[in-house]
Amino acid sequence: MTLRPWEPVLDWLSGPGLEILLLVTGAVLLARFCGWAEERITDRIDHNARETDALVRSEASKHRHSLAQVATWVLIVGIYCVTALLVVSRLGVPLAGLVAPATVAGVALGFGAQRIVQDLLAGFFIITERQYGFGDVVRLAVIGIGEPRTGTVEDVTLRVTQIRTVDGEVVVTPNGQIVQVVNLSRDWARAVIDIPLPTGTDISRVNTVLQGVGTAAYGDAGMRALLLDVPSVMGVESLEVDQLAIRMVARTLPGKQFDVGRELRARAVIALRAEGLAVGAGLDTAEPSGRT
User: Fold this and answer.
1) Under CATH, what is the fold of the domain 189-289?
2) Phi then psi for 156, rounded to 5 degrees?
3) Distance between terminal CA atoms of the chain?
4) Domain residue spans in the chain?
5) pTM
6) Which of 58, 71, 123, 230 is 20 to 30 A from 262 in CA distance terms?
7) Residue 185 CB burial class (10 angstroms; 0-12, 13-18, ≥19)
8) CA distance linking residue 192 with residue 14, whole number of Å
9) In what order do the strands lie in the sheet with 137-142?
10) Higher pLDDT, 43 or 28
């Protein structure tokens, strides 16, 4: 009996071809399910974090959020790798014969993909050591970049860290290129305000006014929710020819030092002007520190 030319093709499509189609479809569906499950888990973590504290996310919830993202990424990569091997076997390629080429390819990739391996290892230690997580405000110093980038962590995988700056820019950084991380929202933060004043200003009077500003801020319900204790006046921080600077500090909830700094600056200017005291140019908030 003579076979028609297309019958072997139909036989292959109804056999291995169908299996390959089912494997690929199953892999895509399983990967999407993992993504859906990750969204449900992270939404539940975010919901619980909002219920426990509407102002600040706990360190445990940030770590769980990051672990869910990394675990999903690893699962999806594993699914596609296993599916690729099964598809290759269905195509009739003996897997045992691929051992030697795979070894050579692995060595080549080992030299050519050192940066990827470095990124994966760095990401592993970032997650396990809890250096930062989803929702943290961080400052990243990156190899080859002069100015560190500051922003809120939106995504952490084993390979990259994604942050969003105050300007709305999304910055994606390979983990292996990060040489230093400053976490601005770990446990608590500090708003540091240097108030410039003319050198002839009565320092004792200014200290009294600023102490009153700190006490009033701590007594305000809106500010009290962000402050951990009463803002304090540290005294003269710098002295120049025509002006001096008096420093005021406030310990805040993590990530809230910027809001507190802006509010205290406004309150300090209003209070000093009400007392007839001139405020010099350049009133600004020094870069906040996470811990001391």
Assistant:
1) Alpha-Beta Plaits (3.30.70)
2) -135, 120
3) 88
4) 189-289
5) 0.55
6) 58
7) buried
8) 71
9) 170-174, 160-164, 149-156, 137-142, 178-183
10) 28
